[in-house]
Write a structure and sequence with these properties.
- The protein is an alpha+beta fold.
- Helix content is 28%, strand content 24%.
- The protein is built from 18 helices and 23 strands.
- The strands form four sheets. Strands 1, 2, 3, 4, 5, 6, 7, 8 and 9 form a nine-stranded antiparallel beta sheet that branches.
- Strand 7 and strand 8 form a beta hairpin.
- This is SEC14 like lipid binding 1.
- InterPro entries: CRAL-TRIO_dom, CRAL-TRIO_dom_sf, CRAL/TRIO_N_dom, CRAL/TRIO_N_dom_sf, GOLD_dom, GOLD_dom_sf, PRELI/MSF1_dom, SEC14/CRAL-TRIO_domain.
Length: 682
């Protein structure tokens, strides 16, 4: 199990040379780091012009671990090898360290870099990447990992504090400037030894307590790449891809170093794989918080949400969606000032809402669109509220008038779907939910809907029965008295509609509602398709003009796929029945189409016109192809299988059984294609 860490860019507002002078004072030992006992120089070399200095040290650490664990391990100290490369000419210090003790059981690797700020040469930047791989540790792997998480998280910020401590010490001694290196001929009689800037090694295997500027990742990572390669990649990323620690604190709030690492790594993964619009840092952080900063889980739901937003063009909802008049008249909800914490306040008089009438007059899809527009408006209001980090909103729900009419089955079904969509795509946007005047029927409704609400969201619910909200600990604790609505005993006039029964003359037939919902659902230009092993999805495009351009835009929602483009002079037969149906399995929504007949031979009946493109889960892919011949072009998405056995060149067993095990071999894509003829370019 490999754990990784990537730091944000930490900035010292001091010149590189002065920071190096402060850094030097931490050695050979430092009273601010009790665990750092001693260090010995193993090797040292200096260039002829003294511009480059390399030193290798063996560092001794007194780990803070349970006595029993030390006795089992049979050690009192652990040792790290550290290599420092100081380049005076380029004004950089690169630090690499790894553990010597238990190196066959635990692999710890760390890379650090001090460099000049790209926009201000009088400032110094610091970055760090680290990895921890516990292969075995006398059966105490989990214990070691927990100790590492606890102690390392508590000490990870000490590095910057220690550097600043020695910078102040230098200032007290009157040292506020250290000259830069300049080329000069070496002296044959009195060689000058440059300042040695060793880096403190990353913490020991047992406790992983962080020495200065040393950090380890605690979040579990499932990537299969080697630690060294991934760390090097992290340190050479372009400056535009990096987050500054001061920016995070100023605009995103106080995050722990491990939370910062999760945000940076997920943001970088999106930049590398998601070729569409990259969400804002606040949006990414919401999904991380919703999954307790588990990167794998947050990445999965974030990618699904980005695909959903793209498919249904949710980013343009506020500009394109116009609520029907019946919603303006009978939907009893609206925005109303802010709560005491400065959050936007939304009021919903659910007890006065005729849910049955709205569903009968509008249908489930229109109600969902309206609720989505409310959430989009909430996000906009939060972005405008710069006084609160990661702003969310407060919702006040008045249940006076709630009765069995509200438990009408289609209405509850619509409510559950709305909750499901909002939970999946707007995590951590609700700061507090105040439920007032809950009647006796409320427990029934709560029993129905609570299983669909995330546990973290349920913790934000405050429920008041009757007039309990008027007493201590009630509404006045969260909303200023001046803005409490008049219908709750306040003096503020609230513009939320009072609702009432929707006239039956506005009801629509089931057929009308179904047609309207189909229209709303298919307004997107994208289509979805499921792909199984042995059952690719294929799309036919007929080209008349040889100089046409086929363009595509698709997202890989689940699994990995291979994308191909073929050309044939023959028209394929009409789509044949899904072969999975022969095994009693049907592709979801019947959206799996296969056109290439198994009797066709590649190179004879059809040809490949583009090299196969392997697309990973979560990727957004755009491209185009200029056609050379008229005829029929087939775009194909197929399951990305593992290669055949290298020794026997036979198919893998799971390939042979693919048609019987499709439930675990499924991919899904969402695509949009367009053909441009030559006249489109005139």
């Amino acid at each position: 199990m490999v754990q990784k860490y990537q730091s944000p860019v930490r900035v010292y507002k001091h010149p590189f040379e002065l920071v190096m002078a402060a850094y030097e004072r931490r050695f050979p030992t430092c009273h601010l780091i009790p665990m750092f006992v001693d260090s010995d120089v193993i090797s040292e070399e200096t260039s002829e012009d003294r511009s480059f200095h390399k030193i290798e040290r063996r560092c001794k650490l007194d780990v803070d671990a349970p006595r029993l664990l030390k006795r089992i391990a049979g050690v009192d100290y652990v040792y790290f090898i550290q290599k420092n490369s100081l380049n005076h000419r380029e004004r950089t210090l690169h630090i690499e360290s790894h553990n010597e003790t238990f190196s066959n059981r635990v692999i710890i690797h760390e890379l650090c870099c001090y460099s000049v700020h790209p926009e201000n040469e009088e400032w110094t930047c610091f970055e760090q990447s680290a990895s921890l791989d516990i292969k075995s540790f006398f059966g105490f792997e989990s214990t070691v990992e927990k100790i590492a998480m606890k102690q390392y998280a508590s000490s990870i910020k000490k590095g910057k504090e220690i550097i600043e401590y020695y910078l102040r010490e230098l200032e007290e001694e009157g040292i506020t400037y250290v000259p830069r290196w300049s080329p000069c001929p070496p002296s044959p009689t009195k060689p000058v030894v440059p300042v040695v800037i060793p880096a403190l090694p990353i913490t020991p295997t047992i406790s992983i307590e962080a020495p200065p500027e040393s950090v380890n990742e605690i979040q579990v990572c499932k990537e299969g790449s080697s630690p060294t390669g991934s760390l090097n990649d992290a340190l050479v990323a372009s400056p535009d891809d990096k987050l500054d620690a001061d920016y995070i604190k100023r605009y995103l709030g106080d995050l722990t170093p491990l939370q910062e690492s999760c945000l940076i790594r997920l943001r970088r993964w999106l930049q590398e794989t998601h070729k569409g619009k990259i969400p804002k840092d606040e949006h990414i952080l919401r999904f991380l918080r919703a999954r307790d900063f588990n990167i794998d889980k947050a990445r999965e739901i974030l990618c699904q949400s980005l695909t959903w937003r793209k498919q249904h063009q949710v980013d343009y909802l506020l500009d394109t969606w116009s609520s029907p008049q019946v919603l303006h008249d009978y939907y009893t909800g609206g925005w109303h000032h802010h709560d005491k914490d400065g959050r936007p306040l939304y009021i919903l008089r659910l007890g006065h809402m005729d849910t049955k009438g709205l569903v009968r007059a509008l249908g489930e899809e229109s109600l969902l669109r309206h609720v989505l527009s409310i959430n989009e408006e909430g996000l906009r209001r939060c972005e405008e509220n710069t006084k609160i980090f990661l702003c969310c909103w407060t919702c006040l729900v008045d249940l006076e008038g709630l009765n069995m009419r509200h438990l009408w089955r289609p209405g509850v079904k619509a409510l559950l779907r709305i909750i499901e969509v909002v939970e999946a795509n707007y995590p951590e946007t609700l700061g507090r939910l105040l439920i007032l005047r809950a009647p006796r029927v409320f427990p029934v409704l709560w029993t129905l809907v609570s299983p669909f609400i995330d546990e973290n969201t349920r913790k934000k619910f405050l429920i008041y029965a009757g007039n309990d909200y008027q007493g201590p600990g009630g509404l006045v604790d969260y909303i200023d008295k001046e803005i409490i609505p008049d219908f709750l005993g306040g003096e503020c006039m609230c513009e939320v509609p009072e609702g009432g029964l929707v006239p039956k003359s506005l009801y629509r037939t089931a057929e009308e509602l179904e047609n309207d919902e189909i229209r709303l659902w298919t307004e997107t230009i994208y289509q979805s398709a499921s792909i199984f092993k042995g059952a690719p999805h294929e799309l036919l495009i007929e080209i008349i003009d040889a100089s046409s351009v086929i363009t595509w835009d698709f997202d890989v929602c689940k699994g990995d796929v291979i994308f191909n483009i073929y050309h044939s002079k023959r028209a394929p037969q009409p789509p044949r029945k899904d072969p999975l149906a022969t095994h009693g399995i049907t592709s979801p929504a019947g959206n799996n189409v296969q056109l290439i007949d198994k009797s066709w031979l590649l190179g004879q009946d059809y040809s490949m016109v583009e090299s196969p493109l392997t697309c990973k889960e979560g990727e957004s892919v755009q491209g185009s192809h200029v056609t050379r011949w008229p005829g029929f072009y087939i775009l194909q998405w197929r399951f990305h299988s593992m290669p055949a056995c290298a020794t026997t060149n036979l198919p893998r067993v799971d390939d042979v059984l693919a048609t019987l095990q499709v439930s675990s071999h499924k991919c899904k894509v969402m695509y949009y294609t367009e053909v441009l003829g030559s006249e489109d370019f005139r």
